[in-house]
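A common beginner's mistake is to predict each chain separately and then try to dock the pieces by hand. The better habit, illustrated here, is to supply every component at once so that their relative placement is modeled jointly.
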Amino acid sequence: MKKMITIMLAIVMAMAMTVTTYADQEVYIFDEASWITTASESELNEKAAGIYDKTGIIVSYLCIEDAGSDGTYAYAEVAYEENFGDKDGILLIESKEKWSVYKQGKAEDIFDAADEDAMWAACSSKDYYNEGADAYLDVVSGILADEGIVAGAEEESQPATPVIDDNHPARFVDGADLLTADEEAELEGKLDEISTRQDFDVVVVTTDSLGGKTPEAFADDYFDYKGYGMGTDDDGILFAISMGERKWAISTHAYGIYAFTDAGQKYITDNITPYMSDGDFVTAFDQFADYCDDYVTQARTGEPYDVDNMPDQLGILAYVMWLFPAYGIGAVIAFFLKRSKKKSLQTAMMRNDASDYWSDFHLTKEYDMFLHRELITVELSDDDDDDDGGSSIHVSSSGRSHGGSSGSF
Amino acid sequence: MSGMEQFKCPSCGGAVEFNAGTQNLKCPYCDSEFDIEALKTKEEAKAQKKDDQFSWDEMASNQWAEGETDGLKVYACKACGGEIVGDENMGATTCPYCGNQIVMTGQFSGVLKPDYIIPFKYDKKQAKAAFEEFIRSRQFVPKMFTTQKHIDEIKGIYVPFWLFDADAEGEATYDATVTHITTNGKYQTTEIKHYSATREGTMKFNKVPVDGSSRIADDMMESIEPFYFDEAVEFNTAYLAGYAADKYDVSDENSIERANERIKKSVELALEQTVTGYRKGRHVEIYDAVTPEWSSVDIQNGKAKYALYPVWMLSATYKGKPYTFAMNGQTGKFIGDLPADEGALKKFFWKRTAVIGTIIYVAGIALLLI
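With all components supplied together, the output reads:
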């Protein structure tokens, strides 16, 4: 028993030690995975210290082998608090598999999700970890400069609760007049609430005709020219349907591209198009709004819904759908077992040889010759065929990048 | 151009071409390469294929001595028409094959005298015990069948067998392959080397038995084999005391075909077992597939003898259906088709479906979650 307690204590202590604390406040770059040389580490530390001196924002980088079961974000949070307490700052954590950004204080207001993506994009674009960390510092320092953050300057006070912006273009435009006035008001209220709370535009547009455009171009242009999108990058999603062509299209922009992956969009449209086909647009749009709310919340965790990470409903469906093949295979195996059991009751059978009765076997000729060689070369199935997830991007007529999808109902 | 030979690709059948670089033949269609000499030898061998030859010189011909069959009577079954031979004290009153009444029809006469007999080594009690053990050790026999012990009758019968001796000479060719799979970047190459293996060999067959009674199922008699001939003795009517004997009603000539089949198969198997790999000096390539291509068997000095072998026949009835079992009276080997408990089998099926299905389901979900 004593031994057990000792072992368990040792395990607990070992786990506690995995989150390393650094006594020296001058250190901003934490290389727990030993991916960066000491020389470049001190260079990076100097650079980060320079940013801190100039802006008063801590810019820290941490690389680890593996964050364990709590995930990179939780690990980053603990590491940040251990080292910097409640000071304003940002920490990019990178493990072999994952990355996260932890922000504290002012940094939470300065950097949005698109900024975080840009940091990671810069960091991961380099071949060496020290170069990656350096690129990350550059991006952060650039953003801080753009925002005009200077050490000691007081930030503008931001309202605690979001307020609906009355000047924003309507988030539900019922060009095809599909909903009653009440339904329209209710949907618009819902879209406004979600968009404001999430700081992310969720827009639904119906029209009688696409005016000769492709559904995709119609949605992109509607988004761009009507001025949708929230935050500095115009984050948002627009769902357009045309009753004339019976087509629908989704256009995503900025953070929307990140939050709504191709697989994620397909999941939404697969679920709502049947309602549209049945003429139940209220339910379709209502569900669309709910999905968008859920998707943006999910994306803020750093893992948007994607091929390997679909909403739970799909999980339940998969659990149920898997029942049939699993038990089907079970039944086939059981059938063969049963057949062999039944066969074992039948013991009378012909013997095709007379091997019990032969003797004196002599091999008088044994000759083997090589005849020919056959070569069959096949190209191995390319992994690219598998959907690795993510969002595909195209450029709209205004020259901006959009994600999206389209189809018929 | 006379004398120009056209070879066909053994892989795809296309006309092959000479490749000056490798000094070999190459198939332009499937990229297979061949050795000219090998292909030539094979084509020649193909032309020389022989047919099977079976020559049986000496058939069974043992005749009864005068007065030898005096004590033997013939009993006939009114239902199946079968004739049983026994002495006056045989005791059996029913047909061992169909269970119906038999009556003595007269003095035994005609047919050949058996050359040999293997006397019974297992008695009736042991046969019954073997039957009980046989059904107890098997799953899914209906309980009713097990508990009620449906044996109608147990009878010891000397079954007529033709025994065939022969010297066999076999020749066979096999297509053997060695497969190597290599992966180079995005491409996977499967290299299959084809070899032609020729084997010739001789072997002796001693007393291959073929059941000479049409009323006993052949599969049953072959299933209780082997019989060991070294325990056979010269036939004497005294061995028949207390047992029934059957007369052959399929002649030795008509039984030869079955012996030929079994001998040919054995020769092929024996030769095939020697096709293991391609040896070149110290280098050996083990074949991973051997396919028989062609074989011919020549049977010489064939001799047939007539013998009686001991068999216990058990008959049982279950749900109005007859079930017959047989035990080798020399070795105790027991066989027979048993009725199946369909209800228990159905239960077994559903239980297994549930268990296996659940395992697959859980494993699948586990994989999904990882």
